[in-house]
Amino acid sequence: MCAFYNLLSITFPGPAWAKGPLYRNHLAGIGAHDPRKRVDPTHMPWAAIGRVQTELGTRCTGFLLSPILVETAAHCLWQATTKQFVQAHSVHFLLAYQAGHYSAHGRVQRFIIPPGYKAGSANTAGLDRATLVLENPIAPPETTLRAPTTAMTVHAGTPVMLGGYEQNQPDTLTADQHCTLTGMQQDQAGHFLLAHTCAGTHGSSGGPLLYATPQGWQAIGIQTLAARNGAGGLATLLNTSTVFSK
């Protein structure tokens, strides 16, 4: 497996962290050229993305797969200090969050994590996903992303996008809209992940890897790991039947 490491959930002591290009260029998963731009959270596919945060202050990205289901990275819910997952009711989803405002708020009733996932380790990164079940629906079906329901084949060079709430811009939704798939990799337990060139750093964990289809945008993966050097990362598959063709 290449030199990738976890995009851990982040904790902020204040409203924002350091700013400026020099700081951004040293963030994991970004590289010397930062292609991320602010996007409009009132328009799809960005309107389906929101901020996942716990009452302990950790923050990640998530996205709606239905009016009541949010997908994110499982490691965002893990407490390293207690070595336990957070309580579901302490997790909140802020849809289309932007500078303190959001289109809807949902409290999590319970969450589902794949059996076999080992938190705090990249060994099972291919299982690093969590489905959050909200207490109530918070958006209409047209403000949700679709996931592949049947086997699909993707190729090297397939255009994709990645959006999220990231470490140096936590109150603004940013995205790399001009990146591609590069291949498949396996974690140490043999689970597959999608490799991509999208710029994304701490806080983008749980963000959707977006793929355009004639029927609209699909989320084909969940941002999980970032490259140690340069832009790029790995995304957990939303449909494990996905096949990569060179």
Automatic annotation (TrEMBL):
Q: Which UniProt keywords apply?
A: Signal
| GO MF | serine-type endopeptidase activity
On whether Signal is a keyword of this UniProt record, the answer is yes
Q: Which residues form a coiled coil?
A: none
PROSITE patterns hit by this protein: TRYPSIN_DOM
InterPro entries according to UniProt? Glutamyl_endopeptidase, Peptidase_S1_PA, Peptidase_S1_PA_chymotrypsin, Trypsin_dom
Per the UniProt entry, what is one GO biological process? proteolysis
Q: Does the keyword Transcription apply?
A: no
Give all residue intervals belonging to the Peptidase S1 domain. 29-246
Entry protein name = Peptidase S1
